[in-house]
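[Discussion] Sanity-checking designs against the backbone

I'm trying to build intuition for which residues belong where. Below is a C-alpha coordinate string of 396 positions. I'd appreciate it if someone posts a full sequence so I can compare it with mine line by line.
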Protein backbone atom coordinates (compact mmCIF):
# COMPACT_ATOMS: atom_id res chain seq x y z
CA UNK A 1 0.00 0.00 0.00
CA UNK A 2 1.32 3.45 -0.89
CA UNK A 3 1.89 5.93 1.92
CA UNK A 4 0.50 9.44 1.92
CA UNK A 5 2.91 11.48 4.01
CA UNK A 6 1.55 14.65 5.61
CA UNK A 7 3.51 17.85 6.20
CA UNK A 8 4.59 18.59 9.79
CA UNK A 9 1.62 19.82 11.87
CA UNK A 10 -0.90 18.91 9.18
CA UNK A 11 -2.25 15.92 11.09
CA UNK A 12 -4.35 18.07 13.43
CA UNK A 13 -7.63 17.97 11.53
CA UNK A 14 -7.23 14.21 11.19
CA UNK A 15 -6.73 13.94 14.94
CA UNK A 16 -10.14 15.64 15.26
CA UNK A 17 -11.52 12.99 12.91
CA UNK A 18 -12.19 15.28 9.99
CA UNK A 19 -12.12 12.95 6.98
CA UNK A 20 -10.70 15.25 4.28
CA UNK A 21 -7.02 15.64 3.47
CA UNK A 22 -6.40 18.73 1.37
CA UNK A 23 -3.57 19.04 -1.15
CA UNK A 24 -1.92 21.71 1.03
CA UNK A 25 -1.51 19.18 3.88
CA UNK A 26 0.30 16.60 1.73
CA UNK A 27 4.07 16.30 1.62
CA UNK A 28 4.30 13.37 -0.81
CA UNK A 29 2.92 10.08 -1.95
CA UNK A 30 5.47 7.39 -1.35
CA UNK A 31 4.83 4.43 -3.62
CA UNK A 32 2.32 4.11 -6.46
CA UNK A 33 -1.44 4.52 -6.25
CA UNK A 34 -4.16 4.85 -8.86
CA UNK A 35 -7.22 7.06 -8.30
CA UNK A 36 -9.44 5.44 -5.67
CA UNK A 37 -6.77 3.15 -4.29
CA UNK A 38 -6.49 2.89 -0.54
CA UNK A 39 -3.41 4.59 0.85
CA UNK A 40 -1.96 4.62 4.33
CA UNK A 41 -1.93 8.14 5.76
CA UNK A 42 1.08 8.84 7.95
CA UNK A 43 2.21 11.89 9.93
CA UNK A 44 5.46 13.67 9.02
CA UNK A 45 7.23 11.53 11.63
CA UNK A 46 5.92 8.33 10.00
CA UNK A 47 3.19 7.57 12.57
CA UNK A 48 0.23 5.78 10.87
CA UNK A 49 -3.02 7.77 11.21
CA UNK A 50 -5.66 6.43 8.87
CA UNK A 51 -6.49 4.69 5.61
CA UNK A 52 -7.94 6.83 2.86
CA UNK A 53 -9.00 6.84 -0.78
CA UNK A 54 -6.47 8.56 -3.06
CA UNK A 55 -7.82 11.23 -5.38
CA UNK A 56 -4.95 12.88 -7.26
CA UNK A 57 -7.09 15.30 -9.34
CA UNK A 58 -9.15 16.74 -6.50
CA UNK A 59 -8.18 19.50 -4.07
CA UNK A 60 -9.37 17.02 -1.48
CA UNK A 61 -6.45 14.72 -2.17
CA UNK A 62 -7.72 11.88 0.01
CA UNK A 63 -10.85 10.95 1.97
CA UNK A 64 -10.53 8.81 5.07
CA UNK A 65 -12.22 5.43 5.09
CA UNK A 66 -11.01 4.52 8.56
CA UNK A 67 -9.11 6.15 11.41
CA UNK A 68 -7.99 2.69 12.50
CA UNK A 69 -4.73 2.47 10.56
CA UNK A 70 -4.92 -1.35 10.85
CA UNK A 71 -8.40 -1.79 9.41
CA UNK A 72 -8.51 -3.42 5.98
CA UNK A 73 -10.65 -1.69 3.37
CA UNK A 74 -12.23 -4.55 1.43
CA UNK A 75 -15.66 -5.93 0.53
CA UNK A 76 -16.31 -6.83 4.18
CA UNK A 77 -15.55 -3.23 5.22
CA UNK A 78 -18.35 -1.93 2.97
CA UNK A 79 -20.72 -4.64 4.18
CA UNK A 80 -20.13 -3.54 7.79
CA UNK A 81 -20.40 0.19 7.20
CA UNK A 82 -23.45 -0.03 4.92
CA UNK A 83 -25.28 -2.45 7.22
CA UNK A 84 -24.55 -0.16 10.18
CA UNK A 85 -25.96 2.90 8.36
CA UNK A 86 -29.13 1.01 7.39
CA UNK A 87 -29.54 -0.36 10.94
CA UNK A 88 -29.19 3.08 12.52
CA UNK A 89 -32.16 4.29 10.48
CA UNK A 90 -34.19 1.19 11.26
CA UNK A 91 -33.66 1.85 14.95
CA UNK A 92 -34.71 5.51 14.74
CA UNK A 93 -38.47 5.31 15.39
CA UNK A 94 -39.47 8.29 13.25
CA UNK A 95 -37.53 6.91 10.26
CA UNK A 96 -38.37 3.21 10.42
CA UNK A 97 -41.68 3.58 8.56
CA UNK A 98 -40.63 6.05 5.87
CA UNK A 99 -40.85 4.78 2.27
CA UNK A 100 -38.52 7.53 1.10
CA UNK A 101 -35.35 7.52 3.16
CA UNK A 102 -31.69 8.44 2.84
CA UNK A 103 -29.82 5.28 3.80
CA UNK A 104 -26.27 6.56 3.44
CA UNK A 105 -25.27 10.18 3.87
CA UNK A 106 -21.64 10.21 2.81
CA UNK A 107 -19.05 11.39 5.30
CA UNK A 108 -21.57 11.52 8.15
CA UNK A 109 -22.12 7.76 7.80
CA UNK A 110 -18.40 7.09 7.52
CA UNK A 111 -18.62 6.60 3.76
CA UNK A 112 -17.18 9.67 2.00
CA UNK A 113 -18.49 10.20 -1.52
CA UNK A 114 -21.35 7.71 -1.18
CA UNK A 115 -25.06 8.57 -1.15
CA UNK A 116 -27.87 6.00 -1.20
CA UNK A 117 -31.58 6.82 -1.06
CA UNK A 118 -34.40 4.32 -0.81
CA UNK A 119 -37.78 4.84 -2.50
CA UNK A 120 -39.84 1.81 -1.49
CA UNK A 121 -38.10 -1.22 -2.98
CA UNK A 122 -35.85 0.88 -5.24
CA UNK A 123 -32.47 2.16 -4.09
CA UNK A 124 -30.72 5.02 -5.87
CA UNK A 125 -26.98 5.15 -5.57
CA UNK A 126 -24.74 8.17 -6.13
CA UNK A 127 -20.96 7.97 -6.14
CA UNK A 128 -19.19 11.33 -6.07
CA UNK A 129 -15.53 10.49 -5.45
CA UNK A 130 -12.81 8.15 -6.67
CA UNK A 131 -12.93 6.00 -3.52
CA UNK A 132 -16.48 4.69 -3.87
CA UNK A 133 -16.02 4.59 -7.66
CA UNK A 134 -13.38 1.92 -7.17
CA UNK A 135 -15.61 -0.09 -4.81
CA UNK A 136 -18.81 0.15 -6.88
CA UNK A 137 -19.44 -3.60 -7.05
CA UNK A 138 -18.78 -4.14 -3.34
CA UNK A 139 -21.13 -1.25 -2.53
CA UNK A 140 -23.91 -2.57 -4.76
CA UNK A 141 -23.58 -6.04 -3.22
CA UNK A 142 -23.63 -4.64 0.32
CA UNK A 143 -26.69 -2.47 -0.42
CA UNK A 144 -28.60 -5.47 -1.81
CA UNK A 145 -27.75 -7.47 1.28
CA UNK A 146 -28.59 -4.74 3.80
CA UNK A 147 -31.87 -3.62 2.18
CA UNK A 148 -33.26 -6.61 0.26
CA UNK A 149 -34.25 -4.09 -2.42
CA UNK A 150 -35.67 -5.12 -5.83
CA UNK A 151 -33.50 -2.82 -7.90
CA UNK A 152 -30.69 -0.29 -7.73
CA UNK A 153 -30.36 2.69 -10.04
CA UNK A 154 -27.08 4.56 -10.26
CA UNK A 155 -27.31 8.36 -10.54
CA UNK A 156 -23.63 9.26 -10.49
CA UNK A 157 -24.15 12.41 -12.55
CA UNK A 158 -23.43 15.09 -9.96
CA UNK A 159 -21.19 17.88 -11.27
CA UNK A 160 -18.79 17.37 -8.34
CA UNK A 161 -17.53 14.20 -10.06
CA UNK A 162 -15.71 16.41 -12.53
CA UNK A 163 -13.52 17.75 -9.71
CA UNK A 164 -12.43 14.14 -9.18
CA UNK A 165 -11.75 13.51 -12.86
CA UNK A 166 -14.74 11.16 -13.12
CA UNK A 167 -17.25 10.98 -15.98
CA UNK A 168 -20.98 10.62 -15.28
CA UNK A 169 -22.35 7.09 -14.83
CA UNK A 170 -26.08 6.36 -14.85
CA UNK A 171 -28.22 3.27 -15.34
CA UNK A 172 -29.71 0.23 -13.65
CA UNK A 173 -26.98 -1.36 -11.58
CA UNK A 174 -29.18 -4.22 -10.37
CA UNK A 175 -32.66 -5.30 -11.48
CA UNK A 176 -34.69 -3.44 -14.09
CA UNK A 177 -36.93 -0.39 -14.27
CA UNK A 178 -40.23 -0.92 -12.40
CA UNK A 179 -43.30 -1.47 -14.59
CA UNK A 180 -45.32 1.29 -12.97
CA UNK A 181 -44.24 4.84 -12.19
CA UNK A 182 -42.35 4.82 -8.93
CA UNK A 183 -44.02 6.63 -6.04
CA UNK A 184 -43.77 6.88 -2.28
CA UNK A 185 -46.14 8.01 0.44
CA UNK A 186 -44.55 10.73 2.54
CA UNK A 187 -46.50 11.53 5.68
CA UNK A 188 -49.81 10.70 4.04
CA UNK A 189 -49.13 12.31 0.66
CA UNK A 190 -48.29 10.24 -2.43
CA UNK A 191 -45.43 11.61 -4.54
CA UNK A 192 -44.04 10.32 -7.83
CA UNK A 193 -40.30 9.84 -7.99
CA UNK A 194 -38.38 10.00 -11.25
CA UNK A 195 -35.06 8.40 -10.37
CA UNK A 196 -33.77 8.71 -13.93
CA UNK A 197 -34.49 12.37 -14.74
CA UNK A 198 -35.55 13.97 -11.44
CA UNK A 199 -33.27 16.23 -9.42
CA UNK A 200 -30.65 14.71 -7.10
CA UNK A 201 -31.67 11.04 -6.76
CA UNK A 202 -35.23 11.95 -7.78
CA UNK A 203 -36.59 13.77 -4.74
CA UNK A 204 -35.61 16.21 -1.97
CA UNK A 205 -35.77 13.81 0.96
CA UNK A 206 -33.97 16.36 3.12
CA UNK A 207 -37.10 18.53 3.39
CA UNK A 208 -39.42 15.76 4.67
CA UNK A 209 -39.76 17.11 8.23
CA UNK A 210 -40.07 20.69 7.08
CA UNK A 211 -42.84 19.76 4.66
CA UNK A 212 -44.64 18.13 7.59
CA UNK A 213 -44.15 21.27 9.66
CA UNK A 214 -45.71 23.27 6.82
CA UNK A 215 -48.76 21.06 7.03
CA UNK A 216 -49.13 21.87 10.73
CA UNK A 217 -48.92 25.61 10.03
CA UNK A 218 -51.08 25.87 6.93
CA UNK A 219 -54.67 25.80 8.22
CA UNK A 220 -56.64 28.70 6.76
CA UNK A 221 -53.53 30.38 5.36
CA UNK A 222 -53.04 31.79 1.88
CA UNK A 223 -49.79 30.05 0.98
CA UNK A 224 -47.04 30.79 -1.54
CA UNK A 225 -44.52 28.04 -2.31
CA UNK A 226 -41.51 29.31 -4.27
CA UNK A 227 -39.22 26.79 -5.99
CA UNK A 228 -41.90 24.11 -5.58
CA UNK A 229 -40.26 21.34 -7.70
CA UNK A 230 -42.80 18.46 -7.73
CA UNK A 231 -45.04 20.12 -5.15
CA UNK A 232 -43.89 18.54 -1.89
CA UNK A 233 -44.49 21.59 0.31
CA UNK A 234 -47.59 22.57 -1.69
CA UNK A 235 -49.33 19.24 -1.17
CA UNK A 236 -48.55 19.17 2.53
CA UNK A 237 -49.91 22.72 2.83
CA UNK A 238 -53.13 21.58 1.13
CA UNK A 239 -53.25 18.58 3.47
CA UNK A 240 -52.98 21.01 6.37
CA UNK A 241 -55.97 23.01 5.17
CA UNK A 242 -54.36 26.01 3.45
CA UNK A 243 -57.03 28.29 2.00
CA UNK A 244 -55.01 28.56 -1.24
CA UNK A 245 -51.58 27.47 -2.45
CA UNK A 246 -49.79 29.27 -5.26
CA UNK A 247 -46.68 27.33 -6.37
CA UNK A 248 -43.90 28.63 -8.59
CA UNK A 249 -41.06 26.84 -10.36
CA UNK A 250 -39.12 27.52 -13.55
CA UNK A 251 -39.11 23.86 -14.55
CA UNK A 252 -42.01 22.75 -16.76
CA UNK A 253 -41.39 19.02 -16.19
CA UNK A 254 -41.25 19.50 -12.40
CA UNK A 255 -44.58 21.37 -12.48
CA UNK A 256 -46.15 18.70 -14.71
CA UNK A 257 -45.20 16.11 -12.10
CA UNK A 258 -46.55 18.36 -9.35
CA UNK A 259 -49.94 18.49 -11.08
CA UNK A 260 -49.91 14.69 -11.43
CA UNK A 261 -48.95 14.35 -7.78
CA UNK A 262 -51.95 16.42 -6.75
CA UNK A 263 -54.18 14.16 -8.87
CA UNK A 264 -52.72 11.11 -7.11
CA UNK A 265 -54.06 12.47 -3.81
CA UNK A 266 -57.84 12.74 -4.17
CA UNK A 267 -58.15 13.81 -0.53
CA UNK A 268 -56.59 17.19 -1.45
CA UNK A 269 -58.59 20.14 -2.83
CA UNK A 270 -57.46 20.69 -6.45
CA UNK A 271 -59.43 23.94 -6.61
CA UNK A 272 -57.19 25.54 -3.98
CA UNK A 273 -53.99 24.93 -5.96
CA UNK A 274 -52.51 27.22 -8.60
CA UNK A 275 -49.26 26.40 -10.44
CA UNK A 276 -47.07 28.91 -12.28
CA UNK A 277 -44.09 28.25 -14.48
CA UNK A 278 -41.96 31.32 -13.88
CA UNK A 279 -38.72 32.73 -12.57
CA UNK A 280 -39.22 33.35 -8.86
CA UNK A 281 -37.19 36.58 -8.89
CA UNK A 282 -39.47 38.08 -11.54
CA UNK A 283 -42.68 36.58 -10.25
CA UNK A 284 -42.26 37.88 -6.68
CA UNK A 285 -42.08 41.42 -8.04
CA UNK A 286 -45.12 40.82 -10.22
CA UNK A 287 -47.12 39.48 -7.26
CA UNK A 288 -46.23 42.58 -5.27
CA UNK A 289 -47.40 44.95 -7.98
CA UNK A 290 -50.58 42.86 -8.41
CA UNK A 291 -51.30 43.48 -4.73
CA UNK A 292 -51.24 39.79 -3.78
CA UNK A 293 -50.54 39.01 -0.11
CA UNK A 294 -49.91 35.73 1.72
CA UNK A 295 -50.01 34.32 5.25
CA UNK A 296 -47.37 31.64 4.70
CA UNK A 297 -44.46 31.80 2.26
CA UNK A 298 -41.97 29.01 1.59
CA UNK A 299 -38.65 29.82 -0.10
CA UNK A 300 -36.63 26.71 -0.90
CA UNK A 301 -34.26 27.82 -3.66
CA UNK A 302 -31.56 25.72 -5.32
CA UNK A 303 -27.98 25.87 -4.11
CA UNK A 304 -26.93 29.45 -4.95
CA UNK A 305 -23.50 28.94 -3.32
CA UNK A 306 -22.03 25.48 -3.85
CA UNK A 307 -18.88 26.63 -2.04
CA UNK A 308 -17.64 29.56 0.03
CA UNK A 309 -16.21 31.14 -3.14
CA UNK A 310 -19.75 31.86 -4.40
CA UNK A 311 -21.02 33.12 -1.05
CA UNK A 312 -21.14 36.82 -1.86
CA UNK A 313 -23.20 36.62 -5.03
CA UNK A 314 -25.40 33.99 -3.45
CA UNK A 315 -26.00 36.22 -0.42
CA UNK A 316 -27.34 38.92 -2.75
CA UNK A 317 -29.76 36.44 -4.34
CA UNK A 318 -30.98 35.14 -0.96
CA UNK A 319 -31.42 38.68 0.31
CA UNK A 320 -33.48 39.66 -2.75
CA UNK A 321 -35.98 36.82 -2.57
CA UNK A 322 -36.32 37.07 1.19
CA UNK A 323 -36.93 40.82 1.04
CA UNK A 324 -39.61 40.27 -1.57
CA UNK A 325 -41.19 37.54 0.50
CA UNK A 326 -41.36 39.84 3.55
CA UNK A 327 -43.07 42.48 1.40
CA UNK A 328 -45.70 39.94 0.38
CA UNK A 329 -46.52 38.78 3.92
CA UNK A 330 -49.71 39.84 5.67
CA UNK A 331 -49.25 41.08 9.26
CA UNK A 332 -48.46 38.06 11.44
CA UNK A 333 -47.53 36.05 8.36
CA UNK A 334 -44.97 33.26 8.39
CA UNK A 335 -41.86 32.94 6.24
CA UNK A 336 -40.10 29.58 5.93
CA UNK A 337 -36.80 30.33 4.31
CA UNK A 338 -34.08 27.85 3.42
CA UNK A 339 -30.56 27.68 2.12
CA UNK A 340 -28.99 24.40 1.05
CA UNK A 341 -25.71 26.10 0.13
CA UNK A 342 -22.72 24.52 1.81
CA UNK A 343 -20.88 27.82 1.28
CA UNK A 344 -23.28 29.76 3.57
CA UNK A 345 -23.16 28.96 7.28
CA UNK A 346 -26.22 29.30 9.45
CA UNK A 347 -25.14 32.54 11.21
CA UNK A 348 -24.52 34.11 7.82
CA UNK A 349 -27.90 32.94 6.57
CA UNK A 350 -29.62 34.48 9.59
CA UNK A 351 -27.84 37.77 8.87
CA UNK A 352 -29.02 37.67 5.25
CA UNK A 353 -32.64 37.10 6.26
CA UNK A 354 -32.35 39.85 8.89
CA UNK A 355 -31.02 42.27 6.25
CA UNK A 356 -33.86 41.26 3.94
CA UNK A 357 -36.43 42.14 6.61
CA UNK A 358 -34.80 45.56 7.01
CA UNK A 359 -34.92 46.04 3.21
CA UNK A 360 -38.64 45.30 3.34
CA UNK A 361 -39.20 47.53 6.36
CA UNK A 362 -40.56 44.62 8.42
CA UNK A 363 -39.83 43.39 11.91
CA UNK A 364 -39.76 39.65 12.39
CA UNK A 365 -38.71 37.01 14.87
CA UNK A 366 -37.43 33.48 14.54
CA UNK A 367 -39.92 30.89 15.77
CA UNK A 368 -37.88 27.86 14.81
CA UNK A 369 -34.54 26.90 13.32
CA UNK A 370 -34.90 24.23 10.70
CA UNK A 371 -32.60 21.53 9.39
CA UNK A 372 -32.55 18.22 7.57
CA UNK A 373 -34.16 15.16 9.21
CA UNK A 374 -32.19 12.45 11.05
CA UNK A 375 -31.63 10.29 7.97
CA UNK A 376 -29.32 13.17 6.89
CA UNK A 377 -27.24 13.22 10.08
CA UNK A 378 -24.26 15.50 10.60
CA UNK A 379 -21.20 13.75 12.00
CA UNK A 380 -19.98 15.76 15.00
CA UNK A 381 -16.55 16.23 13.48
CA UNK A 382 -17.86 17.14 10.01
CA UNK A 383 -19.64 20.49 10.11
CA UNK A 384 -19.68 20.58 6.27
CA UNK A 385 -22.46 18.00 6.57
CA UNK A 386 -24.80 20.71 7.86
CA UNK A 387 -25.66 22.12 4.45
CA UNK A 388 -29.44 22.63 4.84
CA UNK A 389 -30.58 25.35 7.20
CA UNK A 390 -33.84 27.17 7.48
CA UNK A 391 -35.62 29.77 9.55
CA UNK A 392 -39.29 29.96 10.37
CA UNK A 393 -39.94 33.65 10.92
CA UNK A 394 -43.05 35.53 11.87
CA UNK A 395 -43.39 39.09 10.63
CA UNK A 396 -45.16 41.85 12.54
N1 LIG B 1 -39.00 22.55 -2.27
C1 LIG B 1 -38.79 21.47 -3.21
C2 LIG B 1 -37.35 21.41 -3.71
C3 LIG B 1 -36.86 22.68 -4.38
S1 LIG B 1 -35.46 22.44 -5.38
C4 LIG B 1 -39.24 20.15 -2.58
O1 LIG B 1 -39.57 20.14 -1.38
O2 LIG B 1 -39.26 19.13 -3.26
C5 LIG B 1 -35.29 23.94 -6.20
C6 LIG B 1 -36.26 24.16 -7.36
O3 LIG B 1 -36.03 25.48 -7.82
C7 LIG B 1 -36.11 23.27 -8.57
O4 LIG B 1 -37.33 22.63 -8.82
C8 LIG B 1 -35.76 24.22 -9.73
O5 LIG B 1 -36.44 23.88 -10.93
C9 LIG B 1 -36.29 25.53 -9.23
N2 LIG B 1 -35.64 26.76 -9.70
C10 LIG B 1 -34.32 27.02 -9.81
N3 LIG B 1 -34.13 28.32 -10.15
C11 LIG B 1 -35.36 28.89 -10.23
C12 LIG B 1 -35.83 30.21 -10.51
N4 LIG B 1 -34.98 31.21 -10.74
N5 LIG B 1 -37.15 30.43 -10.50
C13 LIG B 1 -38.02 29.42 -10.23
N6 LIG B 1 -37.64 28.18 -9.95
C14 LIG B 1 -36.32 27.90 -9.95
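Best answer:
Here's mine. Compare freely.
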Amino acid sequence: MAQLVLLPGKDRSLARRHPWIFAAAVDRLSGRARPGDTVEVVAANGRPLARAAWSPESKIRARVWTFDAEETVDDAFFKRRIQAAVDRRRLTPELGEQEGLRLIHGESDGLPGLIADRYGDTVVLQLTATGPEKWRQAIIGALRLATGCQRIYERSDSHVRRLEGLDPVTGWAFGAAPENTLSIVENGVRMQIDVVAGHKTGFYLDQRDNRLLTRSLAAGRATLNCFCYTGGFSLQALAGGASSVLSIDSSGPALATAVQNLALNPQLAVSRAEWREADVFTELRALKSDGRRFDLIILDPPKFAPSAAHAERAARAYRDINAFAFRLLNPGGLLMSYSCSGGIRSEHFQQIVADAAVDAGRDARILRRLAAPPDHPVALHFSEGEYLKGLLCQAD
